[in-house]
Design goal:
The protein is an alpha/beta fold and 666 residues long. It binds ligand ME8.
Length: 666
């Protein structure tokens, strides 16, 4: 369909934390693809946004002592800023708290209900707050969420279900008939593997009594919509979908050409979203592309919850925004995982941007200034090296276009830098300094002009990756951004001529585009030079400056005021043994323990140690218990006593004694 808009999306990001390099990655990739297609002349719609409902976001709001609305309004600012700072030129930034999104979700729910796609049932399952989804007992890995490895909660409740299972065979058939539907290939096979087991129906509601931060279900107002059902609909709500009749423009935009997602959220897209669309009788997107993860230096996935992320602002501040955009797309194939290291960043910056691209342009510009009066020369006599360079340029343009249409960003960049490398080799082969010495002006003009042409072509090809630097490079040879677009389109249509510049234009040598860094920029070196905190967890050490005061609570490190022996004597400590342990039904940081402290019956103690221990590891464990602590209710469960533990807020171990339960400890 010639008129079909190119429609590309990123996931909409949870506002339970600030953005990091992983989110920047998906956004940069989508932006590069969108910019490329726009430059090619296509009508593009690029949508991104924030996912603002659900348990995770609600918990964060509670933790911050804010209402959910206050919290999301405050957090969205960081996400918008990330997009602006990284030059992400989206056409729409959607928030799931937007009124028109909410209206679309409710209308869709009602339409599916009216069609008989929804039913109510009582469900027992394991809920993972981190992944915001239910699992069956069989899905769990070591009793934990298979996606996140974090604790799950057993939940039994009556809910609304979407008849997802009914679409299983249709989905398998679609995936098999459209080999490019789920990419890369390995991810497609993963989804087909998942679909070999019977596909259960999808629980799409949450009772307000448990969690009310969501979109109310129109046909049962005691419930809100499950966050994924809400979030996935953004891809159509944002372009004007309505079950009874969509806004003008919807049909020219849907289906999406590409949904870009991280591999962590492939199932929700490939299975939930695809079957939802089938039930809604909408065509499926062209491709769901699941890219890999950025990992920290110690090989862990960077995530908000692990706190081992790379600060994009810091990196962009030190090396420039375009260097960040370039690095993340050049360093790893789109689909593979990549380990981030600052040394790797520095090396690639110096090698590709400073030494190759920056150097080629600077050589051409200084030669023009020094030997040719500072204006772009007419092409003169051939040196014999231009024809092979033009042939390579033609091949590079073709390969870049094919790679960009296929989201193979690293391959596109590799091709463009092959041209840059060939440009530098051309300089060495032609040796313009010899031509200058010999006074061979016709050949010198050709040589210098060709260097400038190759630099400008590289600049035009790189505009989707390095918007600001590409514009700066083109400006040095008198080309506007629009000229660059015209040059690119001409090169795509007819092959590059290496004769697009305007002779007589005054060049602007200025400073090199990418200054070389002989050592790590100070702001980054400072991350490693700072003294290590006494008990810094390893991931944080890999990516953040060490002793940020707000990260290390005062209570963990400083001595509180002195107490007397009498004060201490008020605390009754006893040896105990854990006889049973379970997860707290309502809080994933808490465990509910039954502890024998030598009394008639075990004590129930609620402890915030779930991040360090699985319940089954604790049974039989000897512990030290404060037995005269006033009983409290923690998230609705009574706790009578406290365990002594090491590590402050970040528990690392429990204190234990080898003594019978009830033994007095002093
Ligand atoms: O999942 N490496 O939001 P989210 C690469 N709201 N990419 C990463 C990454 C990493 N270490 N960490 C995060 C959600 N990402 C849902 C989506 S869509 C209808 C709803 C990127 O804030 C990657 O794109 O947890 C991943 O899929 C996304 O951020 C998850 O963002």
């Amino acid at each position: 369909m010639a008129d079909k808009r190119f429609y590309i999306t990123t996931p909409i990001y949870y506002v339970n934390g600030k953005p990091h390099i992983g989110h920047a990655y998906t956004s940069i990739a989508a932006d590069a693809a969108a910019r490329w297609q726009r430059a090619r002349g296509r009508d593009v719609f690029f949508m991104t946004g924030t996912d603002e409902h659900g348990q995770k976001v609600l918990e964060k709001a509670v933790e911050r002592g804010m209402t959910p609305v206050e919290h999301v309004d405050d957090m969205v600012v960081h996400w918008r800023a990330m997009m602006d700072d990284l030059g992400i030129a989206h056409d729409k930034f959607l928030r799931t708290t937007d009124a028109d999104h909410i209206a679309c979700v409710q209308a869709t729910l009602q339409a599916l209900f009216d069609k008989g796609e929804m039913y109510q049932a009582t469900y027992t399952g394991w809920y993972s707050p981190a992944a915001e989804r239910f699992w069956t007992e069989k899905d769990l890995v070591d009793g934990k969420c298979p996606d996140t490895g974090l604790p799950v909660q057993k939940v039994e409740e009556t809910n609304w279900f979407f008849k997802m299972g009914a679409y299983q065979q249709r989905l398998i058939d679609h995936i098999q008939a459209h080999p490019g539907y789920i990419r890369p290939e390995s991810r497609k096979n993963e989804v087909l593997g998942f679909l070999r087991k019977p596909l259960a129906d999808l629980c799409i509601s949450r009772p307000k009594t448990r969690m009310d931060w969501g979109i109310e279900i129109p046909f049962d107002r005691d419930y809100v919509t499950y966050v994924w059902f809400d979030a996935l609909l953004n891809y159509v709500s944002g372009i004007g979908y309505a079950p009874g009749g969509s806004a003008p423009g919807f049909d020219a935009t849907w289906p999406a050409d590409f949904h870009l997602v991280g591999k962590d959220i492939l199932t929700t897209h490939a299975v939930y979203w695809s079957t939802m669309l089938m039930a809604m009788e909408l065509p499926l997107p062209g491709c769901i592309y699941a890219h890999g993860w950025w990992m920290s230096a110690d090989g862990a996935k960077m995530s908000k919850s692990l706190g081992n992320t790379i600060d994009v602002d810091l990196l962009a501040g030190a090396f420039g925004v375009d260097a960040v955009r370039f690095f993340v797309l050049r360093e790893i194939a789109f689909g593979a995982d990549g380990q981030f290291s600052y040394e790797g960043f520095l090396n690639r910056y110096n090698a590709d941007l400073a030494n190759d691209l920056g150097n080629l342009a600077h050589r051409g510009l200084t030669m023009t200034r020094n030997w040719l009066g500072g204006t772009i020369p007419e092409l003169g006599e051939s040196t014999g090296f231009e024809a092979p360079l033009r042939a390579l340029a033609a091949d590079v343009v073709t390969r870049t276009a094919a790679a960009m249409d296929d989201l193979q960003f690293h391959a596109a960049l590799a091709a463009i830098f092959e041209l840059v490398g060939a440009g530098n080799k051309y300089v060495d082969d032609v040796a313009p300094w010899t031509l200058n010495k010999q006074g061979d002006t016709p050949k010198l003009a050709t040589a210098v002009r060709t260097i400038l042409e190759v630099s400008a072509l590289a600049g035009a090809l790189l505009s989707a990756f390095l918007p600001a630097k590409s514009a700066a490079l083109l400006a040095k040879v008198g080309r506007s951004v629009d000229d660059g677009v015209a040059d690119l389109q001409a090169a795509l249509a007819d092959g590059p001529t290496l004769a697009r510049l305007v002779a007589g234009t005054v060049v602007d040598v200025g400073d090199p585009l990418f200054p070389r860094f002989r050592e790590m920029p100070e702001a980054i070196a400072a991350l490693f030079a700072a003294p290590e905190p006494a008990a810094a967890p390893p991931p944080a050490k890999a990516s953040k400056p060490a002793p940020a005061p707000e990260k290390k609570p005062v209570t963990d490190t400083e001595l509180p005021a002195e107490i007397t022996i009498d004060d201490f004597a008020k605390v009754a400590l006893r040896a105990g043994r854990v006889v049973a342990a379970d997860r707290h039904p309502d809080a994933d940081r808490l465990l509910v323990l039954q502890v024998d402290v030598g009394e008639e019956a075990p004590r129930q103690i609620v402890a915030g140690i779930a991040s360090a221990f699985a319940p089954e590891d604790l049974v039989g464990r000897q512990v030290v218990v404060v037995v005269n602590l006033k009983p409290v209710k923690l998230r609705g469960v009574e706790s009578r006593g406290m365990l002594l533990a090491a590590g402050g807020k970040q528990v690392v171990d429990l204190c234990g004694v080898n003594a019978d339960p009830g033994t007095l400890i002093r």
